[in-house]
Specification:
ten-stranded mixed β-sheet, 10 strands, elongated, 2 domains, Rossmann fold, alpha/beta, 277 residues, 10 helices, single chain
């Protein structure tokens, strides 16, 4: 069960849709909802006295950031109260990436927004969804910048390739899968898992889901395009409201870099993604 859901609160144009989605999810699961607004500066830097800016200027800047965060938290409280969910608002003296990753230790699910190129500085090597997915200890639900309604569709597409990450995502999504109107397990044949390999796993996978009260259908497909776009196209074809998949880190700087399929769905998805690493 999602007993505690953590949602990012900020001043972006997508914050309202994100908070409404998290509140509706908390209402459906009987969850406690935590809204966290960050000041945007690492807590250790805030403690320094030898910064270039004069102390009075820093104090004024910090006061403005605090006022802005409290204003957004008041909007969070209104949305949560309107959805009749148990909730609390937190003002955190940290950056959004590190602050959310730390708070996630005591939540069952983290809700953030897809990056919006119009709001994300081009110089950023790492974006918030990538960092949180790869560095927090919990599954992450990424709400697309199109801000879809939580009630758009109760069908779920579960991507499976036999990996540890796919297994983590499936287990993390069980509260959602058990409430879904329909669950489709999709296997894209390729180097990671071929049709014969999946056929050997299928009884175990369906048995696992069944014991958790999840009835699922299976679809094995030979992809006609890269796996990320194939999954998104299939979600459209089946009218799914959520895509569940394992998220992969690549390379030496794994905490900063995502693999091809993960990066594709995070960039191009227009339905929520439940991701686990």
């Amino acid at each position: 069960m999602f007993k505690t859901i953590l949602v990012h609160v900020d001043r972006s144009s997508h914050a309202g849709g994100r908070m409404r989605y998290a509140a509706a999810l908390a209402h459906a699961h009987g969850s406690h909802l935590i809204g966290a607004a960050m000041l945007g500066v690492a807590r250790d830097i805030l403690a320094l006295d030898d910064l270039a800016a004069p102390r009075a200027e820093r104090a004024a800047w910090l006061a403005q950031r605090t006022d802005d965060a409290r204003l957004e938290l008041s909007r969070f409280n209104e949305i949560a109260a309107k959805n009749h969910v148990s909730h609390e608002a937190r003002l955190v003296h940290d950056r959004a990436d590190n602050g959310l990753a730390l708070l996630a230790r005591f939540a069952d699910l983290v809700v953030i927004s897809q990056d919006d190129p119009t709001e994300s500085p081009e110089y950023m090597a790492t974006h918030l969804p990538e960092y949180v997915v790869l560095n927090c200890a919990r599954p992450v639900l990424v709400v697309p910048r199109t801000n879809p309604s939580p009630a758009r569709s109760d069908k779920v597409l579960l991507a499976w390739d036999g990996s540890k990450e796919a297994s983590c995502a499936m287990s993390a999504a069980l509260p959602m899968l058990s409430r879904a109107g329909a669950v489709t397990v999709v296997v894209l044949t390729g180097a990671q898992l071929d049709a014969a390999g999946f056929q050997a796993q299928q009884p175990e996978l369906l048995g696992f889901l069944s014991r958790h009260g999840v009835g699922a259908s299976v679809l094995v497909r030979d992809p006609k395009q890269d796996s990320g776009h194939e999954l998104l196209a299939l979600a459209d074809e089946l009218d799914c409201g959520v895509l569940v998949m394992g998220c992969y880190g690549h390379g030496r700087f794994q905490e900063l870099c995502l693999g091809g399929a993960s990066r594709t769905v995070l960039a191009d998805a227009h339905i929520p993604l439940l991701l686990a690493h």
